[in-house]
Backbone:
C-alpha cells in the first residue's frame, strides 16, 4: 500500500507536508483535491483554503500569515507566506514536569577517560592552541609533525590537534569579544578530551599568553605548556620547542586508558545545519527523545544557536525551572535583536538557501524544528557562549546559528560529544569532541552515507517511531563515547572547525 503523499502533523494545522515530490494535478486523498502545483518533498501544501492575513499553522504553531488567499492543495512557501512577529506569552515554568531519573545503580555506562580531577573524556588528544592568528601557522606545523607513523608508539593517543584561530589582536580589549575569545581558549585548554595542552603566542599581541593563563585560572605544569615565539627564537625554534613539549606529554597521555563510567558524565552539544522540512519531523524530535533518555540517566544536553529558537522561545521559557532562568533566555534574545538590527541576518527572518530549498520558509518555521532537539525535560540553566556548564540536565548556551561557531562554544563549555542533525547533508566534524551526524531523510542518508552516522529517515519511512529512534540514537551515543569512530572522524574532519565567535571591530 502506498503511503499517504502528505503528512498531517497536528489536527489544527492548515498545512500538510509533502512526503515526496508532488506533481501538478496529483490526487491528494487526504484533502479530496489535486495538487495545484509541483511541490518538492518536505515542502508545505495547504490543507484547506487559507484567507489572506490568516495565520498559517504547523505543529499547531504559527509560522506566519498568508500573504494572499491560498486554495486547498496549493504550495505554501515564502512566495505566499509572510513572517509576522506576534506576542508570545513566556508563561515561565508552566510546563515544567519532574524528571523521572533512572536509579544510579541502573544507569547506562560508557568507556571513558577519567582525568585526575574527576572529569571524563570521550577522546584522548593532545591539543595546541594559538593565542593569536600570528602563531597559527606554527601550531599547525607542530601538529603536522606528529604523523600516524610517529604516534604509532602511543596507541592510546587519538592525535595531536592544532586549534588555530583568526583573532587575538587588532581587537578591543577589554571587550566582550576579548572575554569570549579567552573563555573559549580556556575551555579547550581544560577540556576533558585533551590529555595535554600547549599554548603558543607571538609575544606582542593583545591576548598575551601569560595574562590569558592567569586570568582564566589555568595552571602551567606537566600537562600545560606555553611558548612565546618572540622569546623562543622565532618560527623555526618555536616549532622545534613545541615538538619537544608534545613529545614530553605523550607518555603520560598514552598511559590513560578507558574505564566504565556512568552516562551522567556525558555532555552533548546539540547542533542542526542544512535543515529541511523533514528535520522537525524525524531527526530533531528523535534527538530530543534521546536527550530525554540522557537526562534521565543524569547527563547533560546543551541546546544552542540562539537565532534558531527565535519565535518558539516560549516553548523553552515554559520549561524553565525558575522565572530567572526563563528571563535570562529572553535577555539573550533581546541582545540578538539589537545585535542584528538593520542587517539581513537569519534572526530577522531570512533563512539560508539550503533551508529554503528544503522546505523551510522562514526563521519561525526553522526554529520550530530546531528547538525539538532539546527534548521535553525542564530547562535547568542558561549560559553565555563558552561559559563552563556546571548544571546537569537540559541547558541552553547562547551562540550564533553558524555551526562551527556554535559547536566551538559548546565544546569550550564542556561538551564531550556533538550530535548534529541535517536534512540537506552537512559535512561537519569536530575535535577534540567527535560529531555524530543524523540524517533527516533516507534519500539523503543513502546518497551521503559516508558522511552520515544515523538515518532518522526511518521514522518517515514508517520503520521506527520517534521514541524508538531516540533509543537507537542514545545507544549510538554510548558507543561513540566509548571510542567507536564517527563518520567525520573516519574522514579526518575537525582540524579546521575551531571557530571562536568573533564579536566587535577589527582595528
Residues:
Amino acid at each position: 500500500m502506498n503511503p499517504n503523499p502528505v503528512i498531517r502533523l497536528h489536527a489544527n494545522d492548515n498545512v500538510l507536508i509533502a512526503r515526496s515530490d508532488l506533481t501538478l494535478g496529483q490526487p491528494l486523498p487526504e484533502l479530496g483535491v489535486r495538487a495545484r502545483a509541483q511541490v518538492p518533498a518536505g515542502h508545505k501544501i495547504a490543507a484547506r483554503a487559507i484567507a489572506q492575513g490568516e495565520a498559517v499553522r504547523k505543529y499547531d504553531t504559527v509560522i506566519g500569515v498568508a500573504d494572499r488567499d491560498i486554495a486547498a492543495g496549493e504550495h505554501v512557501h515564502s512566495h505566499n507566506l509572510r513572517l509576522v512577529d506576534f506576542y508570545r506569552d513566556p508563561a515561565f515554568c508552566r510546563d515544567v514536569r519532574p524528571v523521572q531519573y533512572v536509579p544510579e545503580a541502573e544507569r547506562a555506562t560508557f568507556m571513558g577517560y577519567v582525568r585526575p580531577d574527576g572529569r571524563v573524556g570521550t577522546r584522548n588528544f593532545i591539543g595546541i592552541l594559538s593565542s593569536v592568528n600570528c602563531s597559527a601557522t606554527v601550531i599547525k606545523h607542530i601538529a603536522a609533525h606528529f604523523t600516524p607513523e610517529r604516534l604509532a608508539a602511543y596507541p592510546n593517543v587519538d592525535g595531536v590537534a592544532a586549534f588555530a584561530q583568526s583573532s587575538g589582536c587588532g581587537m578591543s580589549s577589554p571587550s566582550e569579544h576579548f572575554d569570549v575569545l579567552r573563555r573559549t581558549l580556556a575551555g579547550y585548554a581544560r577540556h576533558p578530551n585533551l590529555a595535554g595542552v600547549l599554548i603558543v603566542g607571538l609575544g606582542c599581541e593583545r591576548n598575551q599568553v601569560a595574562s590569558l593563563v592567569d586570568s582564566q585560572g589555568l595552571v602551567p605544569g606537566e600537562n600545560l605548556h606555553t611558548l612565546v615565539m618572540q622569546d623562543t627564537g622565532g618560527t623555526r625554534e618555536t616549532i622545534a620547542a613545541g615538538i619537544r613539549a608534545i613529545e614530553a606529554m605523550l607518555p603520560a597521555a598514552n598511559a590513560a586508558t578507558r574505564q566504565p563510567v556512568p552516562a551522567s558524565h556525558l555532555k552533548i552539544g546539540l547542533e542542526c545545519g542544512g535543515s529541511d522540512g523533514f528535520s522537525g519531523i524525524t531527526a530533531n524530535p528523535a534527538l530530543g527523545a534521546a536527550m530525554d533518555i540522557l537526562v534521565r540517566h543524569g547527563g547533560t544536553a546543551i541546546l544552542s544557536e540562539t537565532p534558531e529558537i527565535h519565535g518558539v522561545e516560549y516553548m523553552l521559557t515554559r520549561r524553565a525551572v525558575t522565572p530567572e532562568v526563563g528571563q535570562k533566555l529572553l535577555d539573550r534574545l533581546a541582545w540578538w535583536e539589537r545585535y542584528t538590527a538593520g542587517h539581513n541576518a537569519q534572526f530577522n527572518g531570512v533563512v539560508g538557501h539550503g533551508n529554503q530549498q528544503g522546505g523551510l520558509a522562514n526563521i519561525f518555521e526553522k526554529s520550530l524544528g530546531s528547538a525539538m532537539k532539546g527534548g521535553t525535560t525542564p530547562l535547568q540553566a542558561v549560559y553565555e557562549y563558552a561559559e563552563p556548564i556546571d548544571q546537569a540536565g537540559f541547558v541552553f548556551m547562547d551562540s550564533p546559528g553558524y555551526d562551527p561557531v556554535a559547536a566551538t562554544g559548546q565544546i569550550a563549555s564542556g561538551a564531550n560529544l556533538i550530535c548534529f542533525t541535517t536534512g540537506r547533508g552537512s559535512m561537519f566534524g569536530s575535535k577534540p569532541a567527535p560529531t555524530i551526524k543524523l540524517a533527516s531523510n533516507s534519500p539523503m542518508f543513502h546518497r551521503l552515507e559516508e558522511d552520515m552516522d544515523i538515518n532518522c529517515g526511518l521514522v518517515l519511512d514508517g520503520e521506527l517511531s520517534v521514541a524508538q529512534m531516540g533509543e537507537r540514537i542514545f545507544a549510538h551515543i554510548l558507543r561513540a563515547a566509548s571510542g567507536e569512530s564517527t563518520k567525520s572522524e573516519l574522514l579526518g574532519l575537525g582540524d579546521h572547525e575551531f571557530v571562536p565567535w568573533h564579536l566587535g571591530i577589527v582595528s
